[in-house]
Amino acid sequence: VRAGDFQIKVPVPRGIASAPGKVPTENEFTRILQWPGYRVYRQEIDEKSKTLDLWVRRKRGNRKLECSGCGRKFTDAYDSRERAVRDLPWSMFQATVHIEVYRVKCPACGVRIEKVPLLPSKAPFSKRFEDAVGQACESASARQVARRMGLAESTVRAIDLRYLERWDAKRRQPPLRQMGVDEIYRGKKDKFLTVVCNLETSEPLWFGKERKKETLDEYFRTQLVSRQRKRIAAVCVDMWEPFRLSIEQWAPRCKIVYDKFHIMQHANDAIDEVRKAEFFRQGPKKRGLIKGKKWLLLSRWKNLTPAHHGELNRLFQLNRRVFKAYLLKESLERLWQYRYRGAMLNYLNKWIDQLKWQRLVPFEKLAAMLLKHVDGIANYCETKVRFGVVEAVNGNIRMLINRGRGYKNLRYLLLKAKRMAV
Asked: Among 11, 200, 243, 303, which lies 20 to 30 A Cα-Cα from 97?
């Protein structure tokens, strides 16, 4: 005699607003559980430990078994066993579902366990419970979710990884036409992390250790086929030579566009060197006027307040070399406002001509660097790319690393960054 053939009668306390003689039945537990193809035939409630155990079995219309390897359907089972999986909580009660899982003897795969959509893995958790944990990890750290769910932190990370892998397997991969390549500094131990992203969808595509030519070669060789490499129209990179060589080797038809923010960062470094030189050249009395003005000189004029404008004007009146350096840095921003290559090159030549007789050695080095990479700068006139996407993706990755206190699994970090971008 099977246990499901018995009916368990639960006495109803007095004072409950319900029909006389009304007791919870297995049919009501089945409707609340909402497991398609299964019905509840037994339940146990422990009010002291706040636990709810439900035993389920297949309904009459759900008799076919599916092989987890090839998907072939069977009507006979090889053997069966009972699994206890944790499900979503019912009010204050922690719910555990006991389900009968069968094995089938497949002629192609051998003896394999059946495929149960409600149980995505061998872990003792249901699919919707893992989805709830994964959604909670999107807005909180794994440690906070583990404390809330009563699980170990490593268990929460494993559940979140499976949740992200299922999400990534279902979504359609967008085409890659504009690609961005940059690196993130992770410290003395791990050094650099190469980040490849899609500029059109603003999501990361691949992570690689270090920032060598072989690192980017691995992405082109393992992640893209020849047809996908030919579709790449533009690549936005900084002026790192190994990245340029790898792109020219694997995608020779695409146009290399150098990142505007990296070029302006070199301009900020040049004006900071001028400030330091003037700081040490001035006497002790005037040195206090230049000290502490670094962040003002690195800021855009339009982003400063009138009070800050006054401080800069007083500094410019006392030091003409700092004034000229600041004008050169501000005027370089107009380089990316042109739509025609000839007009951009003409403006760049006029900008370089202003350096004559100025004795600004850092800006002379900057001009030499711009002339060396002038083709990649001028390609922006013909191929517009979104410069801010690469920095935004890097900012999201740094935030994830800080919130998670580091990631050893780069695949997990990539999926987290993809989910955040989408």
From this structure: 11
Instruction: Please provide the DSSP assignment of 294-328 as one string.
Output: HHHHHS-GGGS-HHHHHHHHHHHHH-HHHHHHHHH
Model confidence pLDDT, tens digit, residues 71-83? 888 888 888 889 9
Phi, psi dihedral angles at 201 (to 5 degrees): -100, -5
Both tokens assigned to 371: 């002339």
Please give the Cα distance from 127 to 144 (Å, whole number). 21
The SS3 call for residue 73 is: strand
Contacts 24+ apart (CB under 8 A), 123-130: 123/158, 123/159, 123/162, 124/83, 124/84, 124/85, 124/86, 125/85, 125/86, 125/159, 126/85, 126/86, 126/87, 126/88, 126/97, 128/87, 128/88, 129/85, 129/86, 129/87, 129/88, 130/159, 130/162, 130/163
The better pLDDT of the pair 280, 47 is held by 47
Q: With pLDDT > 90 as the criterion, what percentage of the chain qualifies?
A: 47
Phi, psi of 17, rounded to the nearest 5 degrees:
-80, 85
